[in-house]
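Two quick folds needed for the group meeting slides. Do the first one here.
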Amino acid sequence: MALTMIVTRDVEMRYRGFLTSIMLEVSPGVYVAPDMSAGVRTRVWGVMTDWWQALGNGSLTLVWRDTTAPGKLRIETLGEPPKTIVDADGVLLVKRK
């Protein structure tokens, strides 16, 4: 299980209600779960994706720890350009796909 974070911007209140039921809201629109399993993370992101496709407002960013990825982090987005983390000679950068 790994730390998981979701950042929301300009989305409907239903997202907040759902996310606060399973994660901590540490700042407005910033939700963290210190030990979320991959299965739960996948299901939560599935709900977020379904809602975003139906409503189409705002944006969401999901970040979680993945020891096999550059920087040991993975990123998924809805409502903004996809991003990935790249290692440029030891410096970690966020690159738009």
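Then this one, please, same format:
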Amino acid sequence: MEVLVREDRVSIYLGELEGRVGSNQDELSRLETRIKQLEKQNSYLAEKVEDAENRSRASNIRLLHVPEGSEGRDMIGFVGQLFIKLFGQDKLTSPLVIERAHRSPGTPNPNPKTAPRPILVRFLHFQDKLNILRLSRNKKELLFKGNRVHIYPDFSAGLMEKRRLFTTVKKKLRDLDIECDMQYPATLRVHVEGKKLFFRSPDEAEIFIRDFSQQSP
């Protein structure tokens, strides 16, 4: 009789244990679902924040490789004159209205081999930014005091990294004499055989390059 009672107790205990395990598994499953929901929500919010940041920079450009100290004490005046030197007064059909201009934060490095801090420029009119970028694209080399100056849109660090991922495929396309450019926010536009193709990831572009190379004589 005592053995049967013990077996009954063991059976009850095992039943309760299985119930708790099942309950824990259900709770774990609910938690995993909730975590996935939160991760998705966090990703969505991060994208919204990044988009808002980039929209706030819509009228900004970034100047690279302008020697430190060239600006003197009047950065806005210096940048206005720099554009005239780079592109010529005749290319600037209307006065540029610059709201702000400054070096990116940080301490200047006296080592001449160290790249100077970028200059961030904000225009009052969005169209002025577009005109400067267009002039920069059309002129293959921009020189100032023997330095090759580069002009780019001013994007957030996250978006710059997304666009940077296309660097290799853009080089491959240009080696094939295929025109390409980046569209906002991070889409590669390719001009080939009278058509415009759009790639949202470098992998998509790599597949196109492979197929195009195989078809070419």
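Slide caption for protein two: The chain has three domains: 1-41, 60-154, 159-215.
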